[in-house]
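Each record in this resource describes a single protein on a pair of labelled lines. With that in mind, the following record should read easily:

===
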Amino acid sequence: MYYRGRTISRFGKAQPATAQPFSMPSSSGGINSLDNLMLMAPADCLVCHNLMPAEYGMQLRRGYTEWANNTSTDPGVIINPVNTLIGFAGQQDNASAKKLWAVTEEGLWNVTNSGTTAPVQDVVFTPPPGIPGGGFGTYIEVTNDANRRFLQYADEANGLWQYSEQFGTWESPATLAATITGLDPADVAFVTNWKNRIWYVLRNSGDAYYLAPGAIAGAASKFVFGAKFQHGGELKALYSWTVDGGIGVDDLLIAVSRGGDVLVYKGSDPGSVDNFALVGSWYVGELPESRRIGLAVGGELYLLSTGGIINCRDLLKGVETTEAANTYSPTAKISRYLRPVMTQFKSSRVWNMAIYPADGFLQIIAPYSFDNAQTQYCQNLLTKAWGLWDGVPVNCAVSWNGKYLIGAPDGRVWDYDGVLDGTELPGEGALVGGPVQFDVLTSFQPIAEGYALNCTVGMLRAVGVTQGELNLKLEAVYDYQFPYSTVPPPIVPTLFGALWDVALWDDAEWPGGNTSRSVTQGASGIGRVVAISMSGSASSRVTFAGWDGLYRKGGFL
């Protein structure tokens, strides 16, 4: 009784908890390779692949499904990369007017319809020998004075081609030479439209040619740009930029040279010295070899340089060009990843930019290598946060008819849709595709009291919403250990058979609606600041809201 009397109060008293809870939001702020590791916001991350920053957290990107294949005169023997996708909307109010062509070195292949396995070659290219750049083109849609809709396409090796919506036929450079005078259509390397005038840039030339307003034929007049390029190089591209310069909205003409000069012109009639003038000149550094380095996004015009994206609005504001390509650049937070790739593959013509309004992202398309993992750089247009696509064979892309279609290095066209990567068209040996694999490493945060005290994390929990199966691996990473390598968990099984128009309703497994889901795992290690590494795979759309955990506080040493 003595023992019980002396100890009962001690045995019955609750002990204070030593494990403390903490929470971190998902990395909806995207990749941050710009700020000090100690000063990063909790919603930033150091890297994320295929788990993209979105409005409600981080969302797994879509999968990709085969749209068309065999864009080659000898399928299985000759592999032609799809270098350009041409999406033609037309002006006729019927679906048959819409066209999609895949452009390779051999020509233009009609891949309008999903499921195309034997595309018709509408255009056969016969370029002069020794001229590179075949298939890397630009195009515009125009309507002439007779209210007829046309499409004009041009690339470095094959010159200018024209499609008529009325007749459904293409005209070659040799045919166009009879209707467009003052230049040789076979030498046209770039085409654009500015203030209802068509402009042409010739191969290896510092000058451009333009037609009369509203015309698609006639005499082309020459305008000299090259003499104003202080850093040399031919005229690379021309872009129209709609901007409010303080006296109303106007369309400016932007001329870009291979040497990195950017000239800004204002006016409407390039044939009149009183109505067309140079209003600005900047040097933005080296440019990639591609002629597809400009993109209008809302009221902005982005130019792609070896330093990243430059916003032309910053140039007009007087921002130094070195700052416009770095601190002020829309790509500032991913410059650590983008710049080395830009430098290494500067000579590639693949560099391009595209937007997909339906999913709300801008994408920088980088050169693809079969020996290396494919990486594309994607920005959420609303939040301006960046993430990385990994493993998607993007050689070019276009937003057309509500879809984001991808041209691949192996001659296939993919539809950015579905929940599996690489779902092939039905046929013998066709692959059903695999789950999308992802990973993210958050920014490092002091979950204890300040940055000085050690802590150890014992439990981690990922919180989100999913429509199906996923598999996760959670790890605590300490004290700025970056880069961090991890072994991902086993890939989540794919549900075979649940294919629309193929699966049986009573037998197949179908994804349900959004379901709240949390995954809890143990963790270990010790350090002063903590980041969360999460890797895994999923066969459904997944949105992660954040992470919870339990930690124990330690001392200074």
